[in-house]
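Notes from the 1:1 (GR / supervisor)

We went over the backlog. Supervisor wanted to see one worked example end to end before approving the batch request, so GR pasted a single chain during the call. The sequence is below; no edits were made to it. Supervisor asked that the structure be written out right there so they could see what the output format looks like.
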Amino acid sequence: MSLTHVRYHTLKIDAIFIFNDPRDWALDTQIIIDLLLSHAGHLGTLSKLNGDTSLPNNGYQQDEQPPLYFSNPDLWWAAAYHLPRLGQGGYREALEGVWRAVTGGEGQGIELQKTMFGKPHKITFAFAENKLANHRLSIFGHGKTTGVLKRVYMILPPKRLGSTESATDRQLDNPESDIRGANEYKSSGGSEWQSILVRSGVYNGGEPAWKPKVILDDVWDAVQWGIESSAWK
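Structure output shown during the call:
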């Protein structure tokens, strides 16, 4: 069977979206690697450009292969188990390790070209800020300042008010990505982002890797602190 025949008579994938860490890492890794090495995303093909040193990235991912997207960079997340569990960031590291072994990786000037979403990446915070600004407009109407967010408080929540903490609640809290994202985000609209860490989830006390504006006990304290610091009445 010729390459031309295979090219147009096999399943074609136009994009690879990873929304969660896979249940079967080996199977998903094999399929993704096959697609990244393929011609134009046609399963069962192999690009003739792979390894071409005259091209950018030594020819890898230069032949209309499907773009690769990750929705979350977190290495760890909190579940019912008493120790943190590997998240989507763990799978990304594994996939990049296989890609490195297959292509030669950074030592050969080859990278895994990908787009990252989720905290702490800027695009995620820009999207959130835009949604908040639009919500503010829907409440206060259009005016010279009603669409401007002077200050945004990034609260890393521990538990629902009036309830005990559950595994689901703990999943919401990841200081590495949440605090870092809020601290590093530079608003195009001039909003000031402030990170507030509450004591739960992956955070078990001590000095976090990324220092928040303040550390408080729970969401209630965080809301009260925000109101007081903004002098809102």
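Supervisor's comment: The radius of gyration is 22 Å.
Batch request approved.
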